[in-house]
Write a structure and sequence with these properties.
The protein is an alpha/beta fold. The chain contains eight helices and eleven strands. The strands form three sheets. It has a seven-stranded parallel sheet, sandwiched between helices. Strand 2, helix 2 and strand 3 form a beta-alpha-beta unit. The longest helix is centred in the middle third of the chain and has 26 residues. The chain is globular and about 65 Å long.
Length: 259
Amino acid sequence: MKIDASLAAVVTGGASGLGLATVKALRAAGAKVAIFDRNPESGARAAEETGSVFCECDVLSDESVDAAFARARAAIGQERVLVCCAGGGNAIRTASRDKETGEIRIFPSDKFEWVLKLNTVGTFRCVTRSAAGMMTLEPVDGERGVMVNTASAAATDGQMGQAAYSAAKAAIVGMTLTIARDLSREGIRVNTIQPGIFHTPAMAGATPKMLEALGAMVPFPPRLGDASEYASLALEMIRNGYFNGETVRLDGAIRMQPR
């Protein structure tokens, strides 16, 4: 799919990190972009910085997602591109002992469910709405739209404490081919990026020594990924018309250790 001024795109989690880098790359290529994000301050700032439209959106809510798509389409038109970067996680072991008291604790089910709802259901919620909108369009060069979802190396190499996050991201990987098949007759492609360790706001609390140690874990290049490298792959998935139903690791060949 050609990326130019005629193309409208939606990026969830677009106010920071991988999402913001993708917004910048799409805008640099000429596309009109709507940023979906929960944070109104950072969202408005990102929109002003990139010349995009900000739509406050909580991917946990049907009503919020529906309203965000309605606002985006009123501002820039029906999107032909959806990039889902909204997500998050927690770090809780399945069961553990308190080092001082010996008390046995379990992973609270509600906190496990929240991670799945945010990542897996939140992604799927946006996919369904966007697919329905894309289906109203006439095909251009044989296709109506393209979607790029975001999983994680944790989908296959989950570390200790990542049971919920691993499950949520593995579900995104697992549904990629199925959704691509579901939407194939409508001319809508679907792919997923599985990032490794990237330099994003999630790493803001890490010290330079910690970042250096994390980078040293990557076989080559021995550093953290840059968000622009994620965006570069997302744009290739959008442009390349034969790229469909795939999950691609973007991780410098790292395979995560248990901790």
